[in-house]
Amino acid sequence: MGTIDEWTTAICRALKDAFGETCTVGDETMQMEPPCLAVLLSQASQKPGPNGRGQRAVVFEVRGRFTSAAQMREAADTLFASIGLLTLPDGTCLRGCGMRCEAAYGLLHFFVRYEGVVSAVREIPVMEDLKRVQTSD
Question: What DSSP assignment string belongs to 19-82?
Answer without folding.
Answer: HGGGSEEES-GGGSPSSEEEEEEEEEEEEE-GGGEEEEEEEEEEEEE-SSHHHHHHHHHHHHHH
